[in-house]
Amino acid sequence: MIHAVDTISPLRRQFQTRNELFATYMARHAAALARVCLKMSQRFSRGGRLLTLGLGPYSTDAQHVAVEFMHPIIVGKRALPAVDLSHCPSALAALARPDDIVMGFGPPRGAADLEELLAPAAACESLVCRWPGQLDDVPLAPATDDPFIHQEITELMYHTLWETVHVFFEQQGRGEDVGASAFLYPFLAQGDRSVEATLADVAASIEQKAAEDTRLRQRFVAEQAEQFAAVASATQERIDAGGALIVFGNGGSATDANDFVLDCLGGDRGTIPAISLSMDPAVLTAIANDVGVEVAFSRQLIAVGRPQDVAIAISTSGKSKNIALALSEARKRSMMTIALLGYDGGDIVRDRLADHVLVVRSDYVPRIQEVQASIYHVLRSSLVGSGVR
């Protein structure tokens, strides 16, 4: 059965809904996020760690925030200890300590389940944040029952935590600066400041981050709505012909690839066959160790890719060699290739390595990833899988 895909008007409508919700929700919680940043910096300074857990598909958020703290992309920032425990939630009781920070992620109506899951951390006086549920001691109701928008707002919120925890290290006199993102925090150059003044400025900067996401979504609709419609239509044709989506990315983009695939495997739009080449650490480390990290995805595509499938690369830079090699391999196998990119699209755009490209035109990775999540969620919403007629 061939499914007609109407995507341009839903794209505009869904992006507008996101822009309105993001603005009001982040304004409501910016001050609480700033205070959590301060408390996190104090706990990290005392030797605390970040422990993360996610319920079901929200394990990808636990993965994402852990990798951001362990491998910060802010130039010159040290790694902060972070461990994802989603694969073994019972480990929380054994590992949590009073100076630790514990974050849990779940669906919009998952607050009670998260509270039970994170009870061992609360009992030992770790700083606990639950999405949804609470930000430390501040109640945190979901912004919406839409699971995709809920996830995107959650991603923006935890991005602001790892971005701005270093602001408080600087404010506390640790001798650190905020590197290439210093332009976002001009108040740090104003000499000695009180903690309350810094909190107020950090809260304002958090609201500005949401505003930047709004601007980037508006620009994407204005410049690339037709490309998005073409991607959705071509992808639906492949799905209707029995194809699967094969998605891959590095780091935070790996967790986005995992998220997109898990979204495809369930929901009210039917099931879409999908595989993430970023999902299995045993496969990735085996290939990286025995052959090389540059072929981590292309070697997997050789094994699982079919001509009717769709290869979807997620990259903020468009410069990763393993992404480029995978797209080239996919083309050799007559797969359709899609790249979801940031900056100017990098080498993937310049070398025309993908049949379809969607670019979030920003040079700041957190904002790129947040808008990329909006794009692939709206794409998923437009696609019709098996079991739906």
Provide an overview of this structure:
By secondary structure, the chain is of the alpha/beta class. It contains 13 helices and 11 strands. It has a 6-stranded mixed beta sheet with strand order 2-1-3-4-5-6. Strands 8-7-9-10-11 form a 5-stranded parallel beta sheet, with helices on both faces. Helix 12 links the parallel strand 10 and strand 11 (356-360). Helix 1 crosses helix 13, helix 8 runs parallel beside helix 13 and helix 10 runs parallel beside helix 11. It is globular, with a radius of gyration of 21 Å.
Can you tag this structure with a few keywords?
alpha/beta; 389 residues
Shape field? globular
Number of strands: 11
Rounded average pLDDT: 92
Give Rg in angstroms.
Answer: 21 Å
> Number of DSSP helices?
13
Short description:
This protein is an alpha/beta fold.
Topology:
Layout: H1 8-45, E1 50-54, H2 59-70, E2 82-84, H3 91-95, E3 101-105, H4 111-117, H5 119-123, E4 127-131, E5 133-135, E6 138-140, H6 147-171, H7 195-240, E7 245-249, H8 252-264, E8 274-276, H9 281-290, H10 298-304, E9 310-314, H11 321-332, E10 336-342, H12 346-350, E11 356-360, H13 365-382
